[in-house]
Amino acid sequence: MAPLLLLPTILLLSSPYVQAQQNITLGSSLTPQGPNSFWLGGNTSSYLLAVWFNKISDKTVAWHAKTTHPDTALVQVSSGSCLQLTSNGAPSLQDPIGTEVWSPELLGAAYAAVLDTGNFVLAAADGSTKWGTFDNPADTILPSQVLTPGTKLHSRIIATNYSNGRFILNLQNNGVFFYTVSMPSGHQHELNWSMPGNTTNLVFSETGVLYITWDDGRQTKITSGAMSSMEDYYHRATLDSDGVFRQYLYPKKFSNLYNQAWSVLDFKAPNIYIPRSYNNLAVSNNQTTCVCLPHYSFIDEQSKDKGCKPDFQPPSCDLDEAGARKLYTFKMMSHVDWPGGDYKQLPNISNSLCQQLCLTDCFCYVAVFRDSDNTCWTKKMPLTNGVVGDSVQRTVFIKVPTNNSPQSELLDSNRWKKDKNYWILGSLLLLGSSVLVNILLISIILFGTYCTITKNEVLSLQSPNNIGLPLKAFTYVELETATNGFQEILGTGASGIVYKGQLQDDLGTYIAVKKIDRFEHETEKEFTVEVQTIGQTHHRNLVRLLGFCNEGKEKLLVYEFMVNGSLDRFLFGDLRLQWNLRAQLALEVARGLLYLHEECSSQIIHCDIKPQNILLDGNFTAKISDFGLAKLLRTNQTQTNTGIRGTRGYVAPEWFKSIGITAKVDVYSYGVILLELICCRRNVESMVAEEDQKILTYWANDCYRCDRVDILVEGDDEAIFDLKKVERYVVVALWCLQEDPTTRPTMLKVTQMLDGAVSIPSPPDYSSFVQSLP
């Protein structure tokens, strides 16, 4: 559908400073014409009747009108339509020829009003509500809104298309249920998650907490608003188009441009699956995305939930085992499964035999193996209801063509044989290629002279062979313009200052520009190492390097911009992240370090892991930043000797001893951060009244030895409720903080312990040695 145009008959103003509501009298009307109509106009012809946030630049829709039966269709009108509060007390939305396309089923309202809560109501003469948007939600609920049994939230198709999507959150008398539906039939599939019980209401409290009330008086939190005040932030909770129920906040005051966006405060993210979405996976966490299997591609890039198709020919049933091994191999994936598609179950066999049986079976595309009982499943096409997540205890083997397989060539040759149009296209391409080659040869000759003159002015750093990725080489003028003359400082580091900027591209991409302002020989070396190092890294939990500038003495690095800034502002300030999000951040930082230590082609030691160097994107995903102090090790090295690096409170004890430095220094720093995430306080707090609590690492050890880990999270109800995980995380931190580096676990072991995948013995007593804080 065309981009939607919004009719803000209903303006959402949740600020305590707004004026009292103004009643809308009977007979009032709006049309999408004229400067004072409050319709937003444009070059499209579709209009949407909606409630939006009016005092922010992002005019976010909180409610939109649907037909009488909300499971069917979206209400759209064209230019020339009219919304009128009729004399019988009901609003009527009519198309240009006067046909009514939407009206609530009620009579007798005396007036309409927009409440400060964002609820648009039709009221009787005595002020009682006869109809309101709060009682007829779309995909979003707002503070003070209460959903009663029989109410549904229905996601959109995509963020910019407000028609009903594939996910429903349904509040019923016997519980809260989340499920997917087929479109457009609306057929309900099995539940993704539920909270069964005798339900009374789903409440979004005025303090920003979402919870379920039960008939026995209990309350069960869905999300928590503990980190934000209602006076300083707008709040909403939306069942997004990817099937995740998220709570968002938006700052009312813009003292820092970092905060001018909706941020995810909390989310309810089940393991989503898309029914009858073939050969793909729906990855659900803070963000749900569909991804194709290796050697598969989307049927429709614009509608990825339609599934994926294989990019190779089906396996032949005429192949023997030797032929099958020549043409096919397996890609292994963990924590993945497709509940549909099984056609064989083979108990009590080995992992290798499971793969062998699938390899020689022409119907088998995927083999699934469960280690706990040595069970093997073989799956045929299509693979349906794919899910991925830590709770999915499966190892899968995906049959794909080998590197020397002729499968892709066979596909291409068959296509040329079957369609003469490909011959015509091929001839045109060949002719065009010849012309293009001649043009390129001439260009190379002409351009060669220029390159010869200027090549000495460009460091070898700009060579793709040195960088490893196609990083963009920015000019200094470009970055000076993007940062408005390097005005807004985001932060400072050991090697330079970081500025906020915005590129002059089609998307207006925001960037963070690190300017090396003390250029010396060592700094130049550090700059080269940083570009080479980060340019070859790519991980969800690492800040991405977009490009660089290398003009004379001007050395700058261009990074992706992190909307929510650094972790320290959410740990040590007034804002407080809820416990399950802090636990997720701890795991994400661990995974980022694991990538640096063990999954890069060259091992990277960060050397300055601290909350200030952990940035958060708009979805509160943790990303490790600032590789300016990283020490790059060659693959045949195990340790290095260097000067003391790092930040007070996070530095490992071996920095002060004449021993080699290994990746275990990062493990130590991570242990400190893990405790800070658990307790929401700095490692060193000199202002704490109790002497034994001033150093967090010592205090946490004492609490653990006394079996009183609960003291560390006192006042944090969610953490107290999840005390077993809190204790597990504390034990992992104490292992990371061992004085002897060889005793500390690797980051691989750390992630396994955090996940609960391995048992964790009690760590040696941290107080058995004395360490002076740096």
UniProtKB/TrEMBL annotation:
Ranges where the Bulb-type lectin domain occurs: 15-135
Reactions that this protein is recorded to catalyse: L-seryl-[protein] + ATP = O-phospho-L-seryl-[protein] + ADP + H(+); L-threonyl-[protein] + ATP = O-phospho-L-threonyl-[protein] + ADP + H(+)
Coiled-coil zones: none
All residue ranges annotated as the Protein kinase domain in the record: 484-758
Entry's EC annotation: 2.7.11.1
Molecular function terms from GO: ATP binding; carbohydrate binding; protein serine/threonine kinase activity
Alphabetically ordered keywords of this record: ATP-binding, Disulfide bond, EGF-like domain, Glycoprotein, Kinase, Lectin, Membrane, Nucleotide-binding, Receptor, Serine/threonine-protein kinase, Signal, Transferase, Transmembrane, Transmembrane helix
Superkingdom of this protein's organism: Eukaryota
Alphabetical GO biological process terms: response to other organism
Name of the protein this chain belongs to: non-specific serine/threonine protein kinase
Organism of origin: Panicum virgatum
Organismal lineage: Eukaryota, Viridiplantae, Streptophyta, Embryophyta, Tracheophyta
